[in-house]
Task: inverse folding
């Protein structure tokens, strides 16, 4: 019985082995092809954006970037209002979010890395990242906007409700998880001998955090902030719903912050399907191209810093 | 230094207080948003809501079946494309970490992760919508698939990298061909991690609106056709939330509640299943 | 009547430019137990992995020369076929964590997609586990995962997995170096039994082990096969000064 199996298996084995060699090669080629496909997708994205924004690049040149007027009806296209809008919303959001991200990172990384309370908080943070931006936008429109409007009346600015500040507030909440969760990981990577040495010298918790943990993780935490910034710059839906979609440049700092505006992403979302002639569409795509470059570069710098940090 | 030890301890305690305060303050917006969506949405949901198309302006009632079906179809089609492609690329990256191709495609994954979703929408518009001459579910799926790819790739790559080489060696030494080693040993051993990446990528794209604006567009009617415009939950929410009608707002609250539940359930499922199915090495 | 089962002819291995196994000539008989000794880094593992063509799986790794298995050069054969005909047991036990004990034993068939009947599988599992002296311990838990076993049991499971493929030759790369003394002696005891049906090549770091289990011993030094002789002869009266130095512990 055993011998019979032996012979039978032997023959099968040889036959199979020969066909398997062919499949091995095919399989390896598929893996390679799929990896190449990724490169092709990215090159394709880049090529499409460049080709489609060519008409605008050619006719408007680099001046597009600081053109202050965006008036499709008169065929005038300047990106300045959107650059300002994008930078303003993102940086306000970033400034609001950083204390939270750092606090969460320090709390979950150092004070309370284990246990049910820390699990709960960690899940909450993951949940914040998981909630779709359209839901933040919708909520903001119906709950936050009236609150801001009341607030604006109190402080005596035009009570739009919607606008740059409102968008930034929602954006701040949305981007906190990105810097926070990276920060938690990094702070946990601080070697305990370093901390113990400081405690051994009689340092308090606060002193250890300030003079051991913070210096050690500074570059990594900064990278987390960059990733948050990348998110904020490209975020579309929540901002589109809350920013007010005004392409005029504000006449004062107060209006720039409290009044309505537009970001690169929001103007694309709003006007892309309405763009009825080549130059208009092409100008919008050029905004997309700028957005692509800015977010990609910020992300890559962030990732590079993280890689360097974790490899050291 | 010894003298003001009391002061230093107080400082440390105050600092801790500030940290705890800020760390937990973040749960407030989360609870407020979730609470509000649930409060507004939960009573909109009933059988009629889940099984009928939206009612025209002026009529009450109506539902979101077109968006439910549309989201389901588009996400499934996207997943069917993105999962095998993403897993294959992820396997390649973990198996050939030092190759030139791995460097460039790894870079492309990083880039893809940072591309704003609206830009993906623009590009797919020119790749599929313009050549076909119409907005279509197919183009929506393509956009979502591109959004899924980096998540699937990275989770596959990271999971497989953690498996010991000895596993692969064991199989190879038995005369198992490479593709079977990967598909029958390596991938099953990393199944939990890969699955969690897949589920998270689905949870992520099911709520994506921006890439669908110029691709699937939207459709007030129930449609199953991949070559016609299709509604989706997030796009329906966007359309109806920004409309001036209360009935439509209610529809959008209901849809938001459903979308939120999908995302929540997917996230919880991922946590539970990955813990349960993790292969003990 | 002794017959040669495996023979290396001017066999060389390289990692890139690094010449690791140098011009090895050796001839091993059927049903022999061969110990391969030598200081760490001398190329024992690399040589062993050249026999079943595992060496070439490492990027940049190449080899030159012949390994004859039953007179046929393995480098002219289908690599997958060669590997399925030669068993290999590694330093660390590596049962498949996704498979049960039962499936681990027949993994060579399962993973290769070789279809055999349940009855045949049952026979193979019982015979292989019995040969690996593990049957009694696991016969009531065949459907538990293999990773729940102790280290020594896992290593015997890996031996059973190799035996199940009915190889003529089994390669062992320091099979007991990750095991505790009791597990080690259970695996060593097994070598004596396996000898009746198989040819074993055992890389070992441990000279006592080589002396205990092997018929002949090969001593490698800096990639060269310095000496290959009867184990007793080698340990009592080595021909080469380098072997002498090694067994008297002058370097390790
Ligand atoms: N994967 C590898 N890549 C490059 N060089 C290797 C690799 N494995 C082993 N080597 C080199 O080959 C030589 C022999 O190694 P090995 O055969 O593992 O020695 P042994 O098993 O006798 O300790 C060593 O000098 C080692 O540096
Ligand atoms: Mg070795």
Result:
């Amino acid at each position: 019985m055993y011998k019979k199996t032996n012979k039978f298996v032997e023959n099968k084995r040889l036959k199979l082995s020969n066909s398997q060699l062919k499949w091995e090669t095919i399989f390896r080629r598929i893996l390679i092809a799929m990896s190449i496909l990724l490169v092709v997708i990215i090159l394709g994205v880049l090529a499409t954006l460049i080709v489609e924004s060519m008409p605008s690049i050619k006719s408007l040149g680099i001046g597009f970037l600081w053109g202050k007027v965006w008036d499709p009806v008169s065929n005038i296209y300047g990106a300045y209002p959107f650059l300002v809008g994008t930078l303003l919303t993102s940086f306000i959001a970033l400034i609001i979010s950083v204390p939270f991200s750092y606090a969460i990172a320090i709390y979950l990384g150092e004070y309370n890395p284990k246990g049910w309370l820390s699990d709960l908080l960690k899940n909450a943070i993951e949940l914040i990242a998981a909630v779709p931006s359209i839901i933040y936008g919708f909520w903001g429109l119906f709950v936050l906007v009236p609150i801001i409007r009341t607030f604006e009346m109190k402080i005596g600015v035009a009570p739009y409700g919607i606008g740059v500040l409102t968008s930034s507030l929602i954006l701040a909440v949305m981007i906190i998880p990105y810097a926070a969760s990276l920060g938690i990981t990094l702070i946990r990577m601080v070697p305990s001998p370093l901390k113990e040495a400081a405690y051994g010298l009689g340092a308090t918790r606060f002193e250890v955090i300030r003079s051991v943990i913070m210096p050690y993780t500074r570059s990594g935490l900064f990278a987390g902030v960059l990733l948050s910034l990348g998110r904020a710059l490209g975020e579309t839906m929540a901002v589109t719903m809350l920013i007010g979609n005004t392409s005029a440049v504000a006449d004062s700092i107060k209006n720039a912050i409290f009044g309505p505006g537009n970001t690169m992403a929001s103007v694309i979302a709003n006007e892309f399907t309405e763009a009825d002639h080549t130059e208009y569409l092409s100008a919008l795509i050029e905004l997309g191209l700028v957005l692509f470059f800015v977010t990609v570069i910020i992300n890559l710098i962030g990732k590079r810093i993280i890689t360097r940090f974790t490899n050291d | 230094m010894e003298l003001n030890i009391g002061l230093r301890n107080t400082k440390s305690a105050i600092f801790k207080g500030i940290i705890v305060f800020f760390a937990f303050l973040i749960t407030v917006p989360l609870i407020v948003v979730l609470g509000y969506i649930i409060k507004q949405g939960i009573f909109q949901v009933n059988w009629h809501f889940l099984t009928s198309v939206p009612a025209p302006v002026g009529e009450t009632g109506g539902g979101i079946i077109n968006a439910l079906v549309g989201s389901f179809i588009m996400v499934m089609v996207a997943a069917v494309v993105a999962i095998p492609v993403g897993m294959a690329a992820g396997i390649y990256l973990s198996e050939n970490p030092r190759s030139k191709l791995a460097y460039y495609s790894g870079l492309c994954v990083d880039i893809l992760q940072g591309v704003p979703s609206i830009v993906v929408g623009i590009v797919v518009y020119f790749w599929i919508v313009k050549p076909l001459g119409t907005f279509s579910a197919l183009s929506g799926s393509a956009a979502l698939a591109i959004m899924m790819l980096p998540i699937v790739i990275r989770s596959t790559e990271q999971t497989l990298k953690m498996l010991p080489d000895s596993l692969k060696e064991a199989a190879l030494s038995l005369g198992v061909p490479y593709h079977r080693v990967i598909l029958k040993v390596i991938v099953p051993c990393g199944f939990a991690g890969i699955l969690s990446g897949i589920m998270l990528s689905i949870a992520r794209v099911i709520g994506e609106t921006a890439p669908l604006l110029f691709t699937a567009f939207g459709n007030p009617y129930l449609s199953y056709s991949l070559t016609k415009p299709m509604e989706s939950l997030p796009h329906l929410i966007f359309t109806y939330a920004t409309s001036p009608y209360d009935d439509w707002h209610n529809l959008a609250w209901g849809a938001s509640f459903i979308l939120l539940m999908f995302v929540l359930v997917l996230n919880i499922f991922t946590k539970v299943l990955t813990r349960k199915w993790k292969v003990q090495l | 009547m002794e017959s040669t089962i495996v023979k290396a002819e001017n066999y060389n291995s390289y990692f890139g430019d690094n010449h690791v196994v140098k011009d090895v000539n050796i001839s091993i008989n059927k049903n022999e137990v061969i110990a391969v000794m030598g200081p760490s880094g001398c190329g024992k593992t690399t040589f062993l992995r050249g026999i079943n063509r595992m060496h070439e799986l490492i990027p940049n790794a190449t080899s030159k020369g012949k390994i004859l298995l039953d007179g046929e050069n393995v480098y002219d054969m289908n690599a997958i076929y060669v590997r399925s005909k030669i068993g290999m047991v590694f330093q660390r036990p590596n049962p498949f964590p996704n498979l049960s004990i039962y499936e681990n034993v027949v993994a060579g068939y399962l993973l290769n997609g070789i279809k055999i009947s349940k009855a045949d599988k049952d026979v193979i599992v019982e015979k292989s586990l019995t040969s690996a002296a593990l049957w009694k311990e696991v016969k009531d838990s065949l459907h538990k995962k293999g990773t729940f076993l102790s280290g020594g049991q896992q290593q015997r499971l890996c031996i059973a997995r190799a035996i199940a493929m009915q190889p003529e030759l089994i390669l062992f790369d320091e099979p007991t170096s990750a095991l505790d003394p009791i597990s080690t002696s259970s695996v060593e005891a097994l070598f004596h039994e396996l000898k009746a049906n198989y040819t074993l090549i055992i890389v070992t770091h441990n000279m006592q082990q080589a002396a205990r289990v092997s018929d002949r011993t090969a001593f490698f030094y800096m990639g060269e096969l310095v000496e290959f002789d009867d184990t007793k002869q080698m340990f009592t009266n080595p021909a080469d000064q380098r072997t002498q130095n090694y067994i008297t512990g002058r370097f390790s």
Notes: Residues 163 and 259 of chain A are 5 Å apart (CA to CA). Chain A touches chain B through 85 residues (CB under 8 Å). Residues C 44-45 surround magnesium ion (ligand 2) (CB under 6 Å).
